[in-house]
Protein 1
Amino acid sequence: MPVTCVAKGCENKPKAFCTRIFHVIPTDVEWRRAWFDAVGLPETPILENKRYMVCEEHLTKEDYFEKIQHSTQTMVRRLEKMAAPSLFCKQPKDENNWQRKCY
Ligand SMILES: [Zn+2]
């Protein structure tokens, strides 16, 4: 099943060659509740997690920290514990204004 970002008004999908990060909703009970609250969806069993992804456009810079991945010696971005999506499109219908697409 194709997965789309579940945030309101967002239709971003993970694509090949796209650098946008997609996050699966966390498995930690409190944390995932915060995510479902943030995107306005009812909570679902963890088994269904894969159907719920949120793209990085709904998270702020402060929601991430960087660390070195030792196996590849590259910097990777990780989510801060309990960081939840907070940026949502205000005008879901107005494509020109808000929708950044990935090409
Ligand atoms: Zn999104």
Protein 2
Amino acid sequence: MACFRRRTAAGLIFHSDRATQYCSQDFQDTLLAWGIRSSMSREGNCWDNALTESLWGRLKTACDHGPRYATREQAKQAVMDWIAFYNHSRLHSALGYLSPMQFEQRWTDVQTLVKAIKVLRRIVSQSPLADMVMDEVEPGPHATTDAALVEYVKARAELGYHASGTCRMGLDEKAVVTPDLRVRGLENLYIADASVMPELISGNINAACMMIGEKLGRQLRG
Ligand SMILES: Cc1cc2nc3c(=O)[nH]c(=O)nc-3n(C[C@H](O)[C@H](O)[C@H](O)COP(=O)(O)OP(=O)(O)OC[C@H]3O[C@@H](n4cnc5c(N)ncnc54)[C@H](O)[C@@H]3O)c2cc1C
């Protein structure tokens, strides 16, 4: 199911112990078909498989040693629910107290930014921009490897958070202001700032804030 939902990427390794189900021809054929490498660690070395063992241990504590299930289907559902919890919500000290999904999202963000730096460098290295550029200031010419770019992104990237939408404009029950910017239920209180935006606009929001202010100014002047 994981392969169907997520697809596999080159270099993917499946860590397991040496139990018969993992050694079986069927299982190994399936791994091969998806291009996944099997790792069963080495004798006396538990480290390769340590994280997977930790997951099994916690799954057993949560699902196996606790409730008794009336049907196989119930047990299956409990395992699926727990895996969803484990992936989305459970915090891992080994991941800096993030859930696996949060950790992966951050990793994807970093990889996207590394790609963006490479694209920018390619663009800037071509005419006509190349003739105008003297030096690369950041990350700098010494940052040539992916590892160096990852370090740079982690150290320097920032979020651009545009607070908006806390007093959403609309016609429905939950809207705070009406389309003429009046606070619903009150006669003479109006709001004209980024908080009335029903959704965050796709560009930066300063110009839109000024237009909202202009609109209310004109409206009140009549
Ligand atoms: C660092 C930074 C860079 C940005 N760069 C850009 C950019 O390049 N381009 C762009 O389009 N947008 C940019 N933005 C976003 C944009 O400037 C703001 O989103 C926009 O100004 C929000 O307007 P606003 O009227 O909703 O709120 P604000 O501009 O924050 O106005 C709120 C006002 O209410 C006042 N106030 C707060 N509490 C009270 C109170 N109790 N009584 C009376 N007055 C009060 C505050 O002093 C303030 O003057 C940037 C924002 C930041 C922080």
